[in-house]
Each structure stands twice: as structure tokens, then as C-alpha cells.
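Priority: low. Protein: Class I SAM-dependent methyltransferase. Input follows.
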Amino acid sequence: MKNDEVVNAFHDFYYKSGVWEQTKWMGHTIYKCPFDMWIYQEIFFEIKPDLIIETGTWQGGSALYMAQLLDLMNSNGKIITIDIEDFPNRPQHDRITYYKGSSVAEETIEMVANEAKKSKTVLVILDSDHSKDHVLKELELYNQFVSDNSYLIVEDSNVNGHPTYPEFGPGPMESIDAFLESNKNFKVDESREKFFITFNPRGYLKKIA
Ligand SMILES: C[S@@+](CC[C@H](N)C(=O)[O-])C[C@H]1O[C@@H](n2cnc3c(N)ncnc32)[C@H](O)[C@@H]1O
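Result:
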């Protein structure tokens, strides 16, 4: 078996095991692969974001993880996390603002625009509805908020056979391809895929200054 076949076979096995749904940060469920969590840590330390916008909160484990990374960096950064659903017992943290609404609703974008204009370095993570059309809409709406040299991270581009869950249908990977065709100021940063397995292949989009 070639190396990339081994990696893809493990990725598919790992994903299908569902262990990512049992992954926790400080007792809170976080739907992330630990390799990607480490990459987040490396990016945050380099970029030092003042504002992180996350679409798709789920139980708030990812927001808490990011807030605590910012604590470790003694940063002034904060996190706005957006979801259509409320969940009981989401973690509370001074840096985290939970916002209820659709990521693509006009009032949500207005709120994000107001916060983004007060912040020097903004990083965006898209982790809500993973259908191609929704993610593409998010990419089109949120790319304007990303600061130069910062990141627009598209989560879960591994589905629809990239290399797992082939029956998903057009998803984040297809939206990335469509977005990059007409947005030449973003480039895939493949160096963020160095741990071989990432749930976000071609999903670490760097804004070029
Ligand atoms: C994959 S989960 C988020 C996982 C979380 N970021 C984590 O890492 O643990 C997706 C979330 O997106 C939310 N969602 C679905 N459609 C949405 C929309 N249009 N706007 C905002 N959130 C949405 C769902 O309610 C769900 O909580």
C-alpha cells in the first residue's frame, strides 16, 4: 500500500468509527480531530487574532477550546460563535459571545461587520451547515472580514469522498473550489495539513496581503 493510501484508509476508519463525536475539551464535546486542534493552536499563536468568528457552535466545546488558547497567549482576543440552535450547559467564558441566528442572515452579518470593524486581526471558521451551497454563501459573506495574512478556515471538507463519507454529496470541498475560482486573494495553505490527517483538507485558506 502506498503512503497516501494508508493515510486515507486510516482517515476513513477514524471518521467512520465516530470517535470524533466523543472527543471532549475540558468535559465539553468538540467535533474536531485533535490534529486540527493542534493546527489551530499554531495558527492562533502566529496570527494572534483579536476576533475569531465561528459559524456553528454546537455544544460550545470548540469555542471554549479557542478561548482557553487565547488565555494561554495572554491575548485580548474574543470569540463570537453563531448557531441557529441553543444548547443547555454551553461553557461560559468571558471571551465567548454566543449569538443565535443563521450564519447567513442579514442581521447576523450586520452584527459581525460591526464587531469586525473594531478588531485589527480577524480570523473566521466556517463550521455550520456543511452543504456546498450554504458553505459557498458563507465564504462569499465572511471572506470580507478576514484580515490580511489571517485565515478563513473551512471545516469538514473531508466529506463527499475527500477521503471519507462519499455519500455526503457536494459539501465544503466543492464550495472551496468554487470560491477559489473567483477569489484570488485566498490561497490554500497546505502546510497546515502536515499531520497527514486533517478534517479540513484544502480548508486552511490564507488571505494574501
Ligand atoms: C458541526 S456542528 C459545529 C461543531 C462545533 N464548531 C465544534 O467544533 O464542536 C454544526 C452546527 O451548525 C449549526 N447550524 C446549522 N445550520 C446553521 C446555520 N444556517 N447558521 C448557523 N448555524 C447553523 C448546527 O445547529 C450545529 O450546532
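The domain at 3-207 is CATH 3.40.50.150 (Rossmann fold). The mean pLDDT is 98.
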